[in-house]
Structures are given as C-alpha cells and as structure tokens.
Design goal:
heterodimer, A: mainly beta, seven-stranded mixed β-sheet, four-stranded antiparallel β-sheet, 11 strands, about 0% helix, B: mainly beta, six-stranded mixed β-sheet, five-stranded antiparallel β-sheet, about 55% strand
C-alpha cells in the first residue's frame, strides 16, 4: 500500500516562533499534496493544495503568509507555521494524491502545541 | 448549513452489534463517496470508496449511497472492540478526491466487550 509519513509527530513551541512540518510520500510520487487542520472533535478542514513546482492554492480564510507551503519534490511537501500563536495549536494532517488509481493517502498527523 | 452533516456521537454498542453510520449532504455535484476510519491522534485510513448510488460490500463493511436523498451510510457487521474509532465520511466531485475532499465531522464509535 501507499505510505505517507509526517515529521515531527508532535511539536511544542513558544509563541512567536516558526515550526516546519514535513510530509513525505514514501513509495509513490505525488504531484499533489493536501494540508488539513483538525481541531478536537471536529472534522478535517482543507487548508491548501500543494502542487509540485508551483505555488500552493489556499482555501478561503487561510493566511498564505502565515502558513507557508513548499512542494519542492515529488515526494516532499512542507508546511511552515510562521510566528505561531496559541490559537494555531491543532492537529495538522497531510495527504498525498496517487494518480492510478486516484486516491488520497493520509499521513499520521502532527500535533502542534503553541505555548 | 454545512455541506456535509454527520452526527458526532458518541455511539456506544456491544460487541457483535450491527453499527449504522450516516451522513447527509447538500451539494448534488458530489459523485464520489468515501468512509475513513481515524484512530485517536492518527491520520484517517480509507475504508470504503463508492461512486454514485448503490451498495458496496467489503468484508464486515457495507457502504450505501442514495443520491436521490443525498444520504450515505456505512454498516459494520459483527462489530469488534478494534472497530472503536472515529468514522469520517468524505465526498468529492472528482475521482478519489483528486480535487478536494469535503469531510463530515466524524462519528465517534465505541464497541464494548
């Protein structure tokens, strides 16, 4: 099966610092990856679509200057939360789109806590 | 009104029971329907994937789609404690969610011994 990893699995940072989260497709190439955010007992909310070699497409209400996305290769996308604040504390999940068959495979998630 | 509505539960059933999980939706453009299982603090895992109306069975799991009613269901037969998790429905206008997946809030299921 297709495997997607995320690193780190958990991170605690101080308010005002930046945090980078990596998403890797381990056994397939993904031109498209997605970043989701999930609050406790709530659904996954799509933040942005990351396309290899081009700018990410952000959903309405998501600040692109705060959540920087880079998809530098066919197996790696990164999400950087800049100047993090306590309200950014959440569970961030990425997925990678495999083309044939077309299906999103999800990573295990990253728990971000901003103190 | 949310595009996808799902009862958050929690739903508690005894081992061996048949579980019925449901979602309703408002966007008639949704053509592809998925059910994911998410264990606590883990990423979602795809359980079932169906296209348009009809039934699909895979082991103890059966997915039903009724596009005329904008209603989808997941049935779990002979439920096991290991089925305890949050079940998320998801929908898309493109195959496999290649464009965008819209999720329900998830239903928390607990199967008790």
């Amino acid at each position: 099966g297709a495997v997607v990893s995320q690193h780190p699995s958990r991170v605690i940072c101080k308010s005002g610092t930046s945090v980078k989260i990596e998403c890797r497709s381990l056994d397939f190439q993904a031109t498209t990856m997605f970043w989701y955010r999930q609050f406790p007992k709530q659904s996954l909310m799509l933040m942005a679509t990351s396309n290899e070699g081009s700018k990410a497409t952000y959903e309405q209400g998501v600040e692109k200057d705060k959540f920087l996305i880079n998809h530098a290769s066919l197996t790696l996308s990164t999400l950087t939360v800049t100047s993090a604040h306590p309200e950014d504390s959440s569970f961030y999940i990425c997925s990678a789109l495999r083309d044939d068959p077309s299906e999103q495979y999800f990573g295990p998630g990253t728990r971000l806590t901003v103190t | 009104q949310k595009e996808v509505e799902q009862d958050p539960g929690p739903l508690s059933v005894p081992e061996g029971a048949i579980v019925s999980l449901n979602c309703t939706y408002s966007n008639s453009a949704f053509q592809y329907f998925m059910w994911y299982r998410q264990y606590s603090r883990k990423g979602p895992e795809l359980l079932m994937y169906t296209y348009s109306s009809g039934n699909k069975e895979d082991g103890r799991f059966t997915a039903q789609v009724d596009k005329s009613s904008k209603y989808i269901s997941l049935f779990i037969r002979d439920s096991q404690p290991s089925d305890s998790a949050t079940y998320l429905c998801a929908m898309s206008t493109t195959p496999g969610g290649g464009n965008k997946l819209t999720f329900g809030t998830g239903t928390q299921l607990k199967v008790e011994l």
